[in-house]
Design goal:
The chain is of the alpha/beta class and 265 residues long. The protein has one domain: 3-Layer(aba) Sandwich (Rossmann fold), CATH 3.40.50.300. It has 10 helices and 10 strands. Helix 5 packs parallel to helix 6. The radius of gyration is 19 Å and the shape is globular.
Length: 265
């Protein structure tokens, strides 16, 4: 479903602030893979997701999604192929629009815009049923402004919006980092169910090692613009945080004593 082939990205080249964020990074995702991504600050996690999403062009390499080379495709033209949920609950929705209007925008993403606007009766019924699956009572608040929702509710809605058109790839960029632990667990459970029910291929950056182990069928660890670890299946299922830290130390050459050190590296 996704082939990232030897992509590199350097910010501020030729200046004292030059930073090589990605270095000939390659990654292959099969259809239906749910991959968690972990690594310290500056490891290149978000740069990789932004490159895939088309936020900025890569310096070299190719990005192929579902057999189509999208390397040179601008971000807005990738929107109907890629769904994304950001770390900030305020992003991904239009806060001054109603909940049903936000869902309508997501459902029509990538379609040619006409003069007609408004939410049809059939759409309203569909959104009501989809919101009901979240278990948050939002199906009874479809005319409420999204800006009035809590952070967890907004992330749940953004997840639903991102999956409405069944994108080829779903990108989750530390989408629970700004939430309290209980709400984060709920949003992660919703992420699991939405990905599974829709058969989506997904990449999820997380700042939590336990979540990286617990969710998805595959885990990759990044360091200094490279993927240094790629585990899946039974090996991933039986990983512990201690083993993950030991692997990081072995592969990166850096000694860590706890997961906070690894994540803040």
């Amino acid at each position: 479903m996704l082939d990232v082939v030897k992509i590199s990205k350097t910010f501020n080249p030729g200046t004292i602030n030059e930073k090589r964020a990605l270095s000939e990074l390659s990654l292959h995702l099969d259809d239906g893979d749910f991959v968690t991504v972990i690594g310290g600050n500056g490891a290149g996690k978000s740069t990789m997701l932004n490159a895939i999403a088309g936020v900025w062009p890569v310096d070299e390499g190719r990005i192929v999604l579902d057999g189509n080379d999208i390397t040179a495709l601008p971000e807005h033209k990738r929107a109907f192929l890629i769904g994304r949920v950001f770390q900030d609950p305020m992003m991904g929705t239009a806060p001054n629009m109603q909940l049903e209007e936000n869902l309508a925008l997501a459902k029509r993403r990538g379609e040619r815009r006409g003069l007609r606007w408004g939410v049809t009766k059939a759409e309203r019924e569909e959104y009501h049923e989809r919101l009901k699956t979240l278990g948050l009572g939002l199906e009874d608040r479809m005319t409420a402004k999204v800006g009035l929702l809590s952070g967890g509710q907004r992330q749940a809605v953004t997840l639903l919006m991102a999956a409405l058109r069944k994108p080829k790839l779903l990108l989750l960029d530390e989408h629970t980092a700004a939430l309290d632990p209980a709400t984060a667990r709920k949003v992660l459970e919703l992420s699991d169910s939405i990905i599974q029910e829709n058969g989506l291929t997904a990449l999820m950056i997380t700042h939590n090692m336990s979540d990286a182990i617990r969710h998805g069928n595959r885990l990759i660890m990044m360091n200094e613009g490279h993927i240094i670890l790629d585990v899946r299946g039974e090996e991933k299922a039986h990983l512990t945080k201690r083993e993950l830290m030991e692997k990081f130390s072995q592969l990166s050459g850096a000694q860590v004593e706890n997961d906070a050190m690894l994540l803040s590296k």
